[in-house]
Amino acid sequence: MKIFKSKHKLKEEISNIKDISFVPTMGGLHKGHISLIKKSQNFKGKTLVSIFINPTQFNKKNDFLSYPRNLKKDLKILKNLNVDLIYLPNLKDIFTFKVKKKIFLDKFSKKLCGKSRRGHFKGVLNIVNRFLQLIEPRYIFLGVKDFQQSYLISKHILKRKINTKVINCKTIREKNGVACSTRNNNLNKAQYKIASNVVKYLRYKKKIIKKKFSNFKFDLIKKDLLDLGVTKIDYIELYNLKNLKKPKNKKDKFRIFIAFYLNKTRLIDNI
Ligand code: PAF
Q1: If you measure from the C-alpha of residue 25 to the centroid of ligand 1, how many angstroms do you get, rounded to a whole number?
Q2: Which CATH number fits domain 2-169: 3.40.50.620, 3.30.1340.30, 3.40.50.1010, 3.40.50.720?
Q3: 57 CA → ligand 1 middle, Å
Q4: Residue from 186, 222, 56, 193 nearest 126 by CA
Q5: Ligand 1 binding pocket includes 268 (Cβ within 6 Å)
Q6: Is the pLDDT of residue 215 over 80?
Q7: Residue 217: its pLDDT value, please?
Q8: Arithmetic mean of pLDDT over the chain
């Protein structure tokens, strides 16, 4: 496992590597990341994992400051996984070069998390655009838990004609149903239980909506979620993943997209 803190040293190392499978992370590695990394290792070439907590994608300073960090543990995990290359840039290393391609923000960036986290996706695309220019990976591995992020990165890659293929990977969940997320580290036991009840409730509601499409009311769903112990709901919406439209009848496929708070911890999921 080779660790790079400088983009110049990293570039030197990877200049002769034809196929790079890239897994971008903000650290706080969990089973979801591990599954992305293992998947990337099944592709030919080398796996490169980045760890960088990108301040520009946090719309609240406190959220950035309280984002879970544990580099020592992360490096141990990456070593055990036998990851080829690690890039650990600091702010200066990653933000002080000129980008060749402007970011492309698809209009879907205005929905869901785009409404409640102003500037978030611009920050995500800015950093991912920089990584893509620097690393020129053959593949980038992204989790579908962050469906909107993955969709917007794909659109940027397509529009800017970047030669990288997005590999979307399924959401990995804990036994209690909660989607793996670095932010789960900030939950106490009681909040973790509530998060699990939210997943159970939404799975149940999805079944009902599928059967009796006309018979659901978001206000009632929101009330039930607050009764379960949720502190605040940023959004709960239905979207058809194929066309990003709201489903119109029970034949339309859909997922329930949600962003909610348990005290100060914001979680997202799609079910
Ligand atoms: O999903 C994440 O961890 C981040 O948004 C990413 C893609 C690493 C960009 O900072």
Answers
A1: 5
A2: 3.40.50.620
A3: 9
A4: 56
A5: no
A6: no
A7: 83
A8: 96
